[in-house]
Specification:
Distance between the termini: 45 Å
Bound molecules: SN-glycerol-3-phosphate
Shape: globular
CATH architecture: Alpha-Beta Barrel
Largest sheet: 8 strands, parallel, barrel
CATH class: Alpha Beta
CATH topology: TIM Barrel
Strand content: 15-25%
Number of domains: 1
Number of strands: 8
Order of helices and strands: EHEHHEHEHEHEHHEHEHH
Oligomer: single chain
């Protein structure tokens, strides 16, 4: 499973990328707003840190405008992936961009049928939002499992990018469900390293080693 960082905070992305195991980055308009910085600047800086796909989202509502916006975004860096909303217009844009060889990520997916539409439109990635489904009383990870299963059945090349990840348990479930990618906030990524038995084990080893050297 590829690890993407879901953030537009350059310092945090840099810190996570120092691990050497970050494969890409996803951004969205809310994350850009939170960063308080210019979109283009942020994407360029991210591209200098992580050599992998960087999702940049369009904000237009018609396919024609989305495609126009995509052309501008693609000029920022060769690793930019066009993030499109899961709407009829978004799917129309996805279909046209895919035919032109542009890589896309269809976002705000909450149902397996929506994922199927995106795959049929040739999307490179589809982003089901697990956490937001949990928020309204569903098990968001069930959706990831369903999509992975359906894509496998029909041989779609579209990668399942588990998004709206809120905790390490989501990451575990995404991996067990065979998601291709899991995009997570930096704080979730850093939590993955921790286990109290690991800390306890290190403490004991160090203590025993000290006794050996006495
Ligand atoms: O990047 C999209 C997605 O991961 C958003 O997550 O936590 O705002 O639902 P969240």
């Amino acid at each position: 499973m590829k690890f993407f960082i879901d953030s537009a905070e350059v310092a945090e992305i840099k810190k996570a990328a120092q691990s050497g195991i970050i494969d890409g980055v996803t951004t969205n308009p809310s994350l850009i707003k939170k960063s308080g910085r210019k979109f283009e600047e942020v994407v360029k800086e991210i591209a200098a840190i992580v050599d992998g796909p960087i999702s940049a989202e369009v904000v237009s509502l018609t396919a024609e405008e989305m495609i126009k916006e995509a052309q501008t975004l693609l000029k920022i860096h060769k690793n930019v992936i066009i993030k499109l909303p899961m709407t009829e217009e978004g799917i129309r844009a996805c279909s046209q961009l895919s035919q032109q060889g542009v890589k896309t990520n269809v976002t705000l997916v909450f149902h397996v049928n929506q994922a199927l539409l995106a795959a049929k439109a040739g999307a490179s990635f589809v982003s089901p939002f697990a956490g937001r489904l949990d928020d309204i009383g569903y098990d968001g990870m069930d959706l990831i499992e369903e999509i992975v299963g359906v894509f496998k059945t029909y041989g779609f090349k579209t990668q399942v990018l588990a998004a709206s990840i809120r905790n390490p348990e989501h990451v575990r479930r995404a991996a067990i469900a065979h998601a291709d990618v899991c995009t997570m906030p930096p704080e979730v990524f850093h939590k993955l390293f921790y286990h109290y038995l690991t800390d306890q084990g290190i403490e004991k080893f160090l203590k025993d080693w000290d006794d050996v050297r006495k």
